[in-house]
Design a protein that fits this description.
Length: 341
């Protein structure tokens, strides 16, 4: 038993990695069967600060100028993960002066400006990074641009979101399946995976974005994934201005008809600290098992011996009970024969 547990602990990450390449079959709201080769993205509730801390600790910051440009840029990114934006900007501004054509530097500078609320500068540098590499982030950076433009529009008009779609994908309730809309849905998922850890609930722009993603998924790919996207829209504050609850109720009927268990945003929103605690437990148990193989093996052998002893006792008891019953039957037979005579 212990050997089995140890094997499961050691192999469960590999198992989840392996199934990531399976093809999934889904259905859109028009009843058309669709498919995708990757599952719906899961989102973290915060950046990976533990990893960022470890990365910075592994470098000598007093000699930061001796590292190559990409390593210095990565250090800036990890400072940003920790909320140390001033330090990140100091590095990235200097690197930009020295390397204005380096995509990583330009894009990271734009993102850091956004995290500090300087959306005009952020948009400027994200557009510059797109000019350097239009296919960066799997060609999904158009989503980043649209979100920054929406932030600037909202600064001018606080009611802008009530009348506008952030991403302006053109999807409607009756949109037919098209490669363009499918790709837009996948681009949005990609960008949200990076953005959600920095965006706690509620947040009006992401409520709008998740609502539009739901419309895309419902018409193009999957009512199940659309339901999750709408659920996230509600968490981000999309109360009734987009009719999200009504859309979910419509999909709920279809999901039940297709015998699909109703999904929830909670299953796709991972708590970084909880995951760390689980990983720590797995790592500790794995270490104990690997460092005490003889002890674990001894416990296992003792367990097996106890099981064998139980089986021996069970067989002996069965023989005794069976033999006793046989003797009673024979005795009864002879008593019956004597009375018959």
């Amino acid at each position: 038993m212990l050997r089995t547990i140890a094997l499961l602990i050691l192999t469960w990450p590999t198992f989840f990695t392996a199934i990531a390449c399976y093809n999934e079959t889904h259905i859109n709201k028009n009843g058309k069967v669709t498919g995708r080769s990757e599952p719906f993205f899961g989102f973290y509730d915060s950046p990976d600060t533990a990893r960022a801390t470890a990365f910075i600790a592994n470098h000598d910051l007093s000699k930061i100028h001796t590292y190559d440009v990409d390593t210095q840029s990565d250090l800036a990114v990890n400072f940003a993960y920790l909320g140390r934006y001033k330090e990140a900007l100091t590095i990235l501004r200097r690197l930009y002066k020295e390397n204005p054509g380096n995509y990583n530097v330009v894009a990271n500078l734009g993102t850091t400006y956004e995290l500090t609320g300087k959306n005009d500068s952020a948009l400027l540098f994200i557009k510059k990074s797109l000019a350097i590499d239009p296919e960066s982030h799997a060609g999904s950076e158009w989503v980043h641009v649209k979100i920054l433009e929406a932030k600037l529009n909202m600064a001018k008009d606080p009611n802008w979101l009530l009348k506008n779609s952030v991403l302006q994908t053109g999807v409607t309730a009756g949109s037919a399946i098209s490669d363009d809309l499918v790709n837009k849905a996948l681009d949005i998922e990609y960008q949200l995976k990076e953005r959600v850890p920095f965006t706690p609930f509620p947040e009006a722009i992401l409520a709008n974005v998740f609502n539009e993603l739901g419309d895309l998924l419902a018409t193009q790919l999957s009512v199940e994934h659309a339901y999750i996207a709408y659920d996230f829209a509600l968490q981000y504050g999309a109360v009734e201005q987009y009719g999200v609850q009504q859309k979910m109720d419509e999909l709920k009927r279809m999901l039940r008809k297709e015998k699909i268990i109703l999904p929830s945003w909670r299953a796709y929103y991972h708590n970084r600290q909880s995951e760390k605690n689980i990983n720590d437990v797995v790592e500790t148990v794995t270490k104990v098992v690997s460092e005490n193989k003889d002890i674990v093996s001894g416990f296992y052998d003792q367990y097996k011996e106890r099981q064998r002893e139980k089986e021996r006792i069970k067989r002996r008891n069965n023989l005794l009970i069976g033999g006793g019953a046989f003797l009673v039957a024979i005795t009864g037979f002879f008593v019956w024969m004597r009375r018959k005579k």
